[in-house]
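Following up on my earlier thread - several people asked me to post the actual chain instead of describing it. Fair enough. Here it is, all 233 residues.
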Amino acid sequence: MSRISVRGFAVASATAVTTVGAVVGVASGNTVPANGDNLETTAADATLLADIPVGEQAQVQVASLTQQADAQAAAADAAARKSAEEAARLQAAKDAEAKKEAAEEKAQREAEAKEAEERASRSAVRDASSFTTQSSYSISEVQAIARQMVPGDQFQCFSNIVDHESSWNYRAQNPSSGAYGLVQALPGSKMASAGADWQTNPATQIKWGLNYMNDRYGSPCGAWSFWQANHWY
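Reply from S.P.:
Thanks for posting it. Predicted structure:
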């Protein structure tokens, strides 16, 4: 092997090593110059194969190639780690989104189940038409009817409103506004939607008042909260 060809091998080896080193340096954040002068300097500083005993030249060549292979493997490992980290980040984001959606669906199902339970509870109470009509009713009788028509968890709120509006007098009438009955419907004729006997039947008035509170405030307790803040509902 001539000295020129040996020097060419050294330059080529230095170029390959420098190139791989540049890749590794970029991956780790280091800047590696890659101009021709540096390559020539590297080759010039290297020991030429011609200067190495013939019996050791093969070992030097193998060592140089092994070094290059190790550098390439290191660069490949760095790229693989970066790819794996990015994949893990994306998967974590997908998992978090899936958990969020599952939690929202669960909350919605629970809310719907609760609403259905409340509707069932309200529909299970006694209807106004099931009470025998009387010519007159005492306060205790009117309250007893209300307890059978208004859901248990809403009765106290309903009772609070009736206490303030009419003191449980189903014939109570406001002379100035015309409000009438237990819940002081204004005008009183609104209660005709619950029954033609709205003037004389407390069950009809309770039915109308309960429907009004549910429709406008969600429940008698919702109506009572509004009443406390405004002293009307």
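The chain has a mean pLDDT of 80. That should answer part of your original question.
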